[in-house]
TrEMBL record:
GO cellular component, one term: cytoplasm
Protein family membership: Belongs to the peptidase C12 family.
BP terms from Gene Ontology: protein deubiquitination; ubiquitin-dependent protein catabolic process
Family matches, as InterPro entries: Papain-like_cys_pep_sf (IPR038765), Peptidase_C12_UCH (IPR001578), Peptidase_C12_UCH_sf (IPR036959)
Domain UCH catalytic: 12-281
Protein known as: Ubiquitin carboxyl-terminal hydrolase
Site (Transition state stabilizer): Q91
Keyword terms: Hydrolase, Protease, Thiol protease, Ubl conjugation pathway
Record-listed E.C. numbers: 3.4.19.12
Highest taxon in the source lineage: Eukaryota
């Protein structure tokens, strides 16, 4: 999805599919260990359905369809200077909101998870300096949101990894990623959201499945919700900064984010479609 900082001639990527399996392969291939965290579906925003998600949540992703009609309304006044602990970046690459949402989720829990080093011969996203994610967050730690966006825009490794995930992984690189993941997993027969050990949700993401050419300006968008320093933040690369939505905790992140999402739905009942995915950290 285009951002407010994107020029008409800006680089565009293929949209990332709203699929936990695709996102897991994407993150695991970039250096997030399968036994550290994984994405799983959130089947609804009612309390009984939220209880099906491993808790507590670390981040949540939301994708909105028909985003041209979306407005967070009363929430916009909360675009203040949030905690310096919040990892936030702008979006300057078209259709990159899925990848940016995942980076927002992982970037705000780097102190709570390990980012593994993978043998460089196994996957293109690794080197002797560590996994891609480890290098990315260390390189951008002191940058401002727009500088991080430009860094991502010029990062060929991330562009290649995003392309693999966006095209369904039908490449040699994806096969190598799957091989690395399989060798490092300490459990079998586990699909995203099923058969999990005790986990805690570290992120919430909402989005809608779509397909398109890299040149398409799709009317869908990914948003990440994360709990940082005891507060719920909405992280949207189109905005000028994080949006604070009040107090939260890892144990209530999923429910707190669900309330914000429900508010968006109520304001645009005929304009929005949602798909929600949580990122769960193994406890």
């Amino acid at each position: 999805m285009a951002s407010i900082d994107e020029s008409p001639a800006a680089k565009r990527w293929l949209p990332l599919e709203a699929n936990p399996d695709v996102m897991n392969q994407f993150l695991w291939g970039l250096g997030l260990p399968p036994d550290e965290a994984e994405c799983c579906d959130v089947y609804g925003l009612d309390e009984e359905l939220l209880q099906m998600v491993p808790k507590p949540s670390e981040a949540e992703r939301i994708q909105q369809e028909d985003i041209k009609t979306v407005s967070t309304g009363a929430f916009d006044h909360r675009l203040n200077d949030p905690s310096s602990k919040v990892y936030f970046m702008k979006q300057t690459v078209g259709n990159a909101c899925g990848t940016i949402g995942l980076l927002h989720a992982v970037g705000n829990i780097t102190s709570e998870i390990k980012l593994i080093w993978i043998e460089p011969d196994n996957v293109i996203t690794c080197s002797a300096d560590g996994s891609f994610l480890d290098r990315f967050f260390k390189s951008t730690a002191s940058m401002d949101p727009l500088e991080r966006a430009r860094f991502l825009e010029n990062d060929k490794e991330m562009e290649d990894a995003h392309s693999v995930a966006a095209t369904g992984g039908d490449t040699e690189v994806e096969l190598e990623m799957e091989k690395v993941v399989a060798e490092s997993m300490d459990f079998t027969g586990t699909k995203a959201g099923l058969g999990l050990l005790r986990c805690e949700v570290v992120g919430v993401h909402c989005f809608f499945m779509f397909e398109g050419e890299a040149s398409d300006n799709v009317d869908t968008h990914f948003i990440c919700f994360a709990c940082v320093d005891g507060k719920l933040f909405e992280l949207d690369g189109r905005k000028s900064g994080p949006i604070a939505h009040g107090a939260s905790s890892p144990g209530s992140l999923l429910q707190d984010a669900a309330k914000v999402i429900q508010g968006m739905i109520q304001k645009n009942p005929e304009s929005l479609s949602f798909n929600v995915i949580a990122i769960s950290k193994r406890a």
